[in-house]
Design brief:
about 0% strand, mainly alpha, GtrA/DPMS transmembrane domain-containing protein, about 130 residues, single chain, globular
Length: about 130
């Protein structure tokens, strides 16, 4: 059975993830369409803003963790890992699933790994 505390963390984690993704999207779209930045530059700006929202939200709101350079560096490592994992999933499954299926699998698996790594590595209480 899932505990109330874990259920609350999962809901908070999801809410922060949706907010960070929305910020990434809006910033990237604005940079690209209004400011005329390249797609790569726009995506980097969006990712950077989303990353900040994600770290602050997950650290303080989801896991009740104070800021530290150690957790920030671990969270950046997590972001790199999950991006690499998403590339790997898409690469390995691209011959078996259409794009909609590839991205559906990716967006279902990445948050699971991200939550587990956040809870048991990045924001783990020592």
């Amino acid at each position: 059975m899932i505990s109330i505390k874990l259920l609350k963390q999962l809901v908070k984690f999801g809410a922060v993830g949706v907010l960070a993704s929305g910020v990434h999207y809006v910033v990237a779209l604005t940079a690209s369409t209004i400011l005329g930045c390249s797609l790569q530059a726009s995506n980097l700006m969006g990712f950077s803003c989303g990353f900040i929202i994600s770290y602050v939200g997950q650290a303080f709101f989801t896991f009740g963790h104070a800021f530290s350079w150690k957790t920030l560096s671990k969270y950046l490592l997590l972001a790199c890992f999950t991006y690499t994992l998403s590339v790997l999933i898409v690469t390995l499954l691209s011959g078996f699933l259409p794009p909609a299926g590839l991205f559906a699998v990716t967006v279902m698996l990445i948050p699971v790994f991200s939550f587990l790594i956040s809870k048991f590595f990045v924001f783990r209480r020592t």
